Predict the structure.
Amino acid sequence: MAEPTRPLPSLKELDTQHFWKATKQRRLEYQRCDDCGAVVFHPRSHCTGCLGHALSWHVSKGLGTVYSYSVIRQSYHPFFRAKVPFAVAWIDLDEGPRLLSNLTGVADPSRDVRIGQRVALEWEEHEELAIPLFRPVD
Amino acid sequence: MPSPKRDAAIVGIHEYPSRDVEGRVSPLQIKAECAARALADAGLSWQDVDALYDAGDGGMMSGLALAEYFGLHPNVIDTTMVGGSSYEFHAAHAKRDLAAGKARVALLSYGSTSHSNAWAIGVGARGGAGVPMPADNLEGFTGMTLVSNYAMVAHRHMHQYGTTSAQLAEIAVATRYHAMRNPEAVAAMQALEFLDIRETTVADVVGSRMIADPLHLLECCMISDGGGAVVIAIPEVARSCPKPPVWILGGGEATGYPTNGGDITTSAALQSGRSAFGEAGVTPGEIDIAMIYDSFTITVLTILEDLGFCKKGEGGPWVEGGRLRFDRSGGPALNTDGGGLSSNHPGMRGIFLLIEAARQLRGESTSQVPGARLAVAHGNGGMLGSRHCAGTVILGRD
């Protein structure tokens, strides 16, 4: 029987398709409106700051801060059940977007993760895309 | 202060007594039984219902399907589906529709067999076939569980305000105290095979197994079967119903979702609460009964602050010392039926908030606050730590 795998995003969802395709080239991209300057995340086809559609893609440096986190000790998902305990976190990228991810390279997530901690992007490679994870750097 | 319009009242209620139907009853059957009993409680019948409100828990296209199942031809159909807050939305919409003269008698119902089906509710329910919603397509890879979603609100609350697990535990302790006085809640905990069914202490709660840091097992709601129904009527009908009318004095609704740089310690309850209290012309300090959606302890703490019972960030110290017990003064009695934590949570608990608030204002609760006059029912749908809906309803007796 095949090993259970991480649930991967769909490449068919039109608003997030560009974001996920860019990860294959190890680029973490987000949108900013050329007209009003709003950072739009999650990705969309329209600006939520103004009525325009002049959203351009920018590449994040992949540095950010833990806004909040939890250590998951119980999961019924076949992949994650074997990963407990593991940390899920809201990451505030330095460029503005807040995204949900997992923390990696952490020996004991209940001790080694804290709010306000600096983190750096680390890719987990898959066939058609890569998953952006974050590793504490302080 | 102008007294709010008394243009719609809860006149009939019923809560399905069983929390484990062992797969022998369908959600639709639960809805029908609860609806019939709530109508009987109101001294009314199917033929009196001309407005139908439903969250689709019995099946697809329920505005049509449920009308047929119940044998109704309603003038007003509202299938607002916003998770556990749906029933507070429905009650507020019913008040609006009845006040506008579009109908005379409104029926709300709920039925669920989450426990029997061993359904993963909340976050687990998203993974259907087809193309996901954009936000879900960005978050699904993380394995975030329902509990951990709320836990991230708790961690941030602790970080910003110094809130402790012991303070959060006070909410679970007060709720269990009420549950032990409610025979249906005790039976529910027995049916769901809770271990060691008794009143709890703060030490019990913080000593229970961690599920998703910082939330412990006894801070998490149960997953039961169950259902309920509520009948709402115009004053001319309500005055001739056998039970005292429970007036819907105000309603509010709002959405909350992740924003870049936003503060997840404040929920959509801030917006819905202002609207509801404003319409009702009352303040949180006047509220006797707080029926607050207790999916987890942090849900209650956040919403109490957002509704204005205390200042943002001061909820931790405020709930200490049993303030929320029905037999203590200094604050509203919280979830006097035993809550989702210890009595009834089949996935969308909002209807039970209305039902227990109505019991209190009729004088029928098992943890009755003497002379209770005003109640708030606040439903939270979706997930507090990311995207959620808030529905607030203010209720009062004559």
